[in-house]
Design a protein that fits this description.
The protein has 100 residues and is mainly α. The chain contains 4 helices and no strands.
């Protein structure tokens, strides 16, 4: 949190540029963090996230990485398929009772 007690939000471009200053220009994390007014530990986390996800890191509020989006779609599909299966099971039970 900042001095006024509110959490600051940084956009993707800011985070990538901060990481670039460390990785490509070879500057020290502590120095870059001090210049940008952020915590060095935060910059370390951004650096690790960028190393892991590349340009898809830091998708932003409400946005998902491609992997997260695919997982969300697959979970929804599984939910829908289970619902359809349950409906078919009930229909089969109803029709098999009527034949007797």
């Amino acid at each position: 949190m900042s001095a006024n007690g509110k959490r600051r939000n940084y956009d993707q471009a800011f985070k990538i540029e901060a990481v670039r200053l460390v990785t490509e220009e070879g500057r020290k994390v502590a120095q870059v963090a001090r210049e940008l007014g952020i915590n060095a530990n935060q910059l370390h986390r951004w650096k690790a996230k960028f190393a892991e996800d590349g340009l898809s890191a830091f998708p932003g509020k409400g946005n998902l990485t491609p992997e997260q989006e695919e997982l969300r779609k697959l979970r929804r599909e599984v939910f829908d398929l289970r619902e359809e299966r349950d409906i078919l099971k009930k229909a089969m039970a109803i029709f098999s009772d009527r034949r007797r």
